[in-house]
Amino acid sequence: MTGPDGAFHGMKKGAVFIDHTTASADVARELHAKGKELGVGFVDAPVSGGQAGAENGVLTVMCGGDQADYDRAKPLIDCYARMQKLLGSSGAGQITKMINQISIAGLLQGLAEGIHFGKRAGMDIDAVVEVISKGAAGSWQMDNRHKTMAAGEFEFGFAVDWMRKDLGICLSEARRNGAHLPVTALVDQFYSEVQEMGGKRWDTSSLIALLERKK
């Protein structure tokens, strides 16, 4: 980004860099400041929705930066986003992505335990999910991952390695701002066990593999 062959030095003054990387808020603020020095706008814009969301143009894009830069970036982001929003100054997009990953981590562990519990109780998981997904327990993860979780299939999706990288960013930011994330820290440790099982590139729904292993 900032070196002599980096992206900033290949951009014209007045251009806007839209950064879809998931990184720390500090990195976003650093790049925003460097862009200002060079006369280049910068919007931190991490995404949620995965490969399918990108292919179908329905990503959720969480943005941080200056209003003027966001206003210029918005028509482009609209081409591949179902939802986008400027959530604050530089770094706010990355903070929002951290909240997203914290929420997903806890949700996936709960779903893994629920499916594992249902299987051990001899329940028809598809039938159970058909019912509970229409109530307060419903989620994207339940709708899209319950079948593969129950079947022990994980060779797709958002990799455990990537999730651990993201959760590491969350935990680091929490140490800085004083937030307490006990469940996030626990799920991060569970993912480290999945990695040890050989699941580094498995989908994040593979948390259930730990429970099934302990039969």
Question: Short description, anyone?
Answer:
By secondary structure, this protein is mainly alpha-helical. The chain has helices at residues 25-38, 50-55, 67-77, 92-120, 125-132, 140-151, 160-177, 182-196, 207-213; strands spanning 16-19, 41-44, 47-48, 59-63, 81-86.
For the structure shown, list the relevant keywords.
215 residues, mainly alpha, Rossmann fold, N-(1-d-carboxylethyl)-l-norvaline Dehydrogenase, domain 2, 2 domains, three-stranded mixed β-sheet, two-stranded parallel ribbon, 9 helices, 5 strands, 56% helix, elongated
Order of helices and strands: EHEEHEHEHHHHHH
What is the highest CATH level, the class of the largest domain? Answer: Mainly Alpha
Based on the coordinates given, report the CATH architecture of the largest domain.
Answer: Orthogonal Bundle
Give me the oligomer status. single chain
Name the overall outline.
Answer: elongated
Q: Please state roughly what percent of the residues sit in beta strands, choosing from under 5%, 5-15%, 15-25%, 25-35%, 35-45% or over 45%.
A: 5-15%
Helix content: 55-70%
Structural class label: mainly alpha
| The CATH superfamily title of the largest domain | N-(1-d-carboxylethyl)-l-norvaline Dehydrogenase, domain 2
Domains, number: 2
Could you tell me the CATH topology label of the largest domain. Answer: N-(1-d-carboxylethyl)-l-norvaline Dehydrogenase, domain 2
